[in-house]
Amino acid sequence: MNCTRRNFLIGGSTTLFLSGYFPKISFASMQKKNLIIISLRGGMDGLTAVPVIGDKRLKKLRKKLILEDVLNLNSDFGLHPKLEIFHKLWQKNQAAFVHATNIPYTGRSHFDGQNLMETGAHIPYKEKTGWLGRGLLASNIIGKGLAISLPMPLLLRGVPQNNNFFPSPDFVETKLIDQIYNEFKGEHNELIKSTLDTIRQRPLSMQIATDSDDRKKLALEAAKQLKDQSGPRVAVFDLDGFDTHAAQGGVDGAHADELEEVNKIVTILHENLGQAFDNTLILTLTEFGRTIKQNGGYGTEHGYGSAILMAGGLLKKSQVYTDWPGLKKKELFEGRDLNSTIDSRAVYNSAMSVCFNQDPEFLRKEVFWGDEFPDLSQELFKI
Amino acid sequence: MSLNFYRRVAFGLLPNEKPDKDPLNWAINQLDTIPDLLWPGTIPTEKDLRKKYGEWVYGDREVLRKKFKNDKHAYRKAKDELRIKTGERYYELNEHAIRHFQTKYSKQPVFERFWLFWGNHFAISEKDFLAEFSTGPYQREIIRPNMVKTFEEMVQSVTTSWCMIHHLDNSESFGPNSKKGMEWGETINENHARELLELHTVSPNAGYTQEDVIQLAYIMTGWAHKWDRKNLETGDIWFDQEMHQKGDKIVLGVKYKNDAKRELAKVIHDLATHPICIKFVSTKLCRHFITDEPTEEMINPVIEAWNKSNGSLIEIHKAVIKQAYKYNEITHKFHPPEIWLMQLSRMFDLNIPLSFEKMNYTFKSKPNNRQRQLSWILREIGHSPYRAKQPNGWSDLEVDWVSPELLLRRFWFASVELPMLVKSGNRSHGFILSCLKNNFEDHKNMASLIDNFRFGTSDYDLGQKYGVICNLPGVLKI
């Protein structure tokens, strides 16, 4: 797709709609669609979250990490018991999973991996912007990103005027900012200046102090903002602690505690988005999965293939979407990790195309440098 | 030379401190010796605190969990009492006080900036109870004494320290062909080996492979805590031959003959003197003191000093300072929240930290709000020093520190919290003006921005003044 086509779209010309890129254009599709990404830092173990119950090898290799009370998805896959909201939504075609997937990164470094999961690139630290930020910019959606964390995640960088929400203990008078705003001069002060712009434009409800220790309240405020037709269209949550080298445990171990956090956030979003949940996609993101085999500390090492947990009304149906590579030694990546058969960027690109009403091909070129991966919008999402 | 040099390489000037005639020499002369820790209160040893760590985990894991396995509430109560008794709630606060007292009053503030740098380069991230008990003393006892030695000696000390070994799980790494590895069917844990390569020495620029990581992990097997029933994982570090992988190893193309505990020192020597390591660490140093993206031209003299002195940290530090001086007028550097706070504390003589008498603790009840205040502020401005989320420590890049919420937190601190930290004798407008004059060339312009409040001395008035001053572009950055 070339530039003219893009400008065409931004201009809102109806002729584009006739060209067949968007099969369904109705009032519903003009409704604001939300894309929520939950970053799971440290390497989320897809085989703990969505265990392959149909394969006996998993139990053999993970004697001390066996899950009991797995929730049933289908004959091949189960769900970790702490992910009960996903199970509930699964019954309503509002939860799905992509399995044996990862970004195209096979090194096993958190820092490189997390950098790449956010930039979507191939060489760590080369790109300074995130795929989500670039996707928003390419779709001309400015000032609609909301990060639920103190620092601004790399994932959202690349588009100006993002907001983040992680309230301070007391109310801050923004008139202080007005007083010094004009002192920020010169190129080297531009980043701070544009950030001050964002602060000055934020809605009143975000200026009121709450308790940032309370994930519930943060998710609640995020839901409130996302529900608002003129509010943010993208939200990014940040969770860490998935790096369970030791004492990973089963139903109640260290990994389970982290999954419980994911469950909590999705539960609150689901409860409080109300009808807007129908126009929402929630996707998880991680840097890599973990080794099949347990290690010396009953934990797991950095691996490769993982899973994406998905929820929201924009999902096509409940399914475990996978091209399952198997767990036999020769089927494993380097003989030790679940392989990745789906470039997870295909999932994120498709999700962006659905939520930003954008042509997936166009995004693939603008955001991911035209890297080869398929469009999965039809398979995974309502379009 | 601009006054901002005192903030570039240190923390600005105290109200009674005057700029030196020769700022470059002033800075360079601070690097030859290790200044004493000035904190007049208690400074417990790493070993003592590790013992407390042991009492806490043993008490919780081995005693309370079993004793109260059917009574959640009684368990919670007993656990809270144990936290108080073992200092689990207290020692981190005390460490923050030691640290901030040092950066505020040290006669060698430039040395202290390097101390902060190395503590973050060899970062201990938030894991288990390291922040509560061990990261502070690790920075005092492992990082600090090595700052007048060589980089290689620093890496050796860090790599075999209890804190780093615990942080990166090396005690759980068994050579698969070692006696214990075979008996127990255990294998390596690559974490520490990977970070030793990636973060502490050569960085991914060296192009090491997964096999290099595995081979280095083999070399490192056996370096572990001594485990016993009472101290659990808090015993001293030793070399356990029965965990050590037998056979020769090859890392980055160099062969290390089967030589038990001596293998580690050899590989560290090669890593710490590797040209890519020297470039990587020199770049980080320049990034910290000069600008986010230092040029080759800025970095090269540091590399030269490194090579010429065989990695003497004193000489490396001096070279960095010379470069910081040379580029002072033409580069900008954003300061992360903790350094900003330390600078405000020094320039405006704030009540940070609390006096050592008031920091005194009886281990009988929770630390009070005043005792918790500094640590709480650090957390709220987004920079609790021992609680980086990942082993790569805190970022040194402006983009990672500029977000609406992080900037708002600075306004919050300066306008709401700071006025309560102003000493009673320092509430006059004249005091602020004199501090500005002492530290900033454009103090007149700064003063004009707060002129409206010149007669006010209430907390609110001070909040309006400091809220403005502390967040001016020339204060957030140099």
Low-confidence stretches of chain B: none
Query: In total, how many domains does the architecture of chain A comprise?
Result: 1
CATH architecture of chain A: 3-Layer(aba) Sandwich
Please give the share of residues in helix of chain A.
25-40%
Oligomer: heterodimer
**Largest sheet data of chain A:** 9 strands, mixed
List the strand order in the largest sheet of chain B.
1-2
Number of strands of chain A: 11
Put simply, the count of helices of chain B is 25
**Helix content bin of chain B:** 40-55%
Beta-strand fraction estimate of chain A: 5-15%
Report what the structure shows.
The complex is a heterodimer of chains A (383) and B (478). Chain A is 34% helix and 13% strand. Chain A contains 16 helices and eleven strands. Chain A has helices spanning 3-11, 15-18, 27-30, 46-49, 57-61, 84-91, 110-119, 131-138, 175-180, 190-201, 204-207, 215-227, 254-273, 344-355, 360-368, 377-380; strands at residues 34-40, 71-72, 78-79, 95-102, 145-148, 163-164, 234-239, 280-286, 306-311, 320-322, 342-343. In chain A, strands 1, 4, 5, 6, 7, 8, 9, 10 and 11 form a nine-stranded mixed sheet that branches. In chain A, strand 2 (71-72) and strand 3 (78-79) form a beta hairpin. Chain A is globular. Mean pLDDT of chain A is 85; it is low at 1-26. Chain B is an all-alpha fold. Chain B has a domain at 162-272. In chain B, the strands form two sheets. Chain B has a two-stranded antiparallel sheet with strand order 1-2. Chain B has a two-stranded antiparallel sheet with strand order 3-4. The longest helix of chain B has 22 residues, at 46-67. The radius of gyration of chain B is 24 Å and the shape is globular. Chain B starts with a helix and ends with a helix. The model of chain B has no long low-confidence stretch (mean pLDDT 95).
